[in-house]
Specification:
With about 250 residues, the chain is of the alpha+beta class. Helix content is about 50%, strand content about 20%.
């Protein structure tokens, strides 16, 4: 549904402050005012309100996002049927591969990591539940885009562009659509160091009865372990199997 009303400036400012605090991992009034180009009095009033409502904590003048947001995020995730159904399958995938197993959804044209399980051999990555990334930078994102209508994908690209994250990131629209055609044909997508240097990923979409991607599941790991047949055959077979199990369980649960 398209909204036609004008944004409420005070609410917009509040969320700009919250997003900036998240990006900076905490900041004081003056730093926020300079970063956002707003008067310190305005910033101070918003910070005090958010602190009083227990959404921020004040650590000796440095404001940080509080744990109350965790409750909101957990509630949002737990109400999603796809998360409830896919969770055990993602956990099994991590146990089987020893690598990171992930699930992503699309929201407002971005990829959102909904769930991540770290296998016994997995390296440390920057991903976490709630992290938002450009869809074309990940195998899961490309899996989702490949199973959405062309006009919807075009609208997402018009809104968010094709930001380059690494030297391997797809930044050309025509190239992306060629890749999405390949993903649809074979049923899974690759990420070859396109979001994180040294990391590869294989993903498959989770689709509904209309073949529309509602989520995606993946395995990601260091390039040194995702080589040859393991990268091109074994991991794709695993994620395809997991995606199929999730789709069947979604249909009959």
């Amino acid at each position: 549904m398209t909204t036609t009303g004008s944004p409420v400036q005070a609410a917009k400012t509040t969320f700009e402050i919250i997003d900036t605090l998240r990006e900076l991992d905490g900041a004081g009034v003056s730093e926020l005012a300079e970063r956002l180009g707003m008067p310190t009095s305005t910033i101070h009033d918003h910070l005090r309100t958010l602190e009083n409502e227990e959404y921020l904590i004040n650590d000796d003048g440095t404001y940080r996002v509080g744990a109350r947001f965790l409750e909101l995020g957990e509630q949002a995730r737990n109400r999603m049927k796809v998360f409830k159904v896919a969770r055990p399958e993602v956990e099994s995938l991590a146990e089987e591969t020893g690598e990171h197993a992930n699930m992503m959804i699309e929201e407002h044209g971005l990829g959102v990591f909904l769930y991540k399980v770290r296998g016994s051999e997995a390296v440390q990555l920057d991903t976490h539940a709630g992290k938002r990334v450009p869809l074309q930078t990940t195998a899961m994102g490309k899996s989702i885009l490949a199973h959405r209508p062309r006009e919807e994908v075009e609208a997402i690209l018009d809104r968010h562009g094709l930001p380059d994250v690494t030297d391997n990131t797809i930044t050309d629209r025509a190239e992306l659509f060629d890749v999405l055609d390949q993903v649809r044909e074979r049923g899974y997508a690759f990420d070859d160091e396109e979001r994180v240097d040294g990391i590869r990923c294989v993903a498959a979409p989770i689709t509904d009865a209309d073949d529309r991607a509602i989520a995606a599941v993946s395995v990601s790991g260091p390039k040194s372990r995702m080589l040859g047949d393991s990268f091109t055959d074994e991991f794709p077979d695993m994620v395809l199997r997991s995606a199929n199990v999730i789709e069947v369980n979604l249909t009959y649960s």
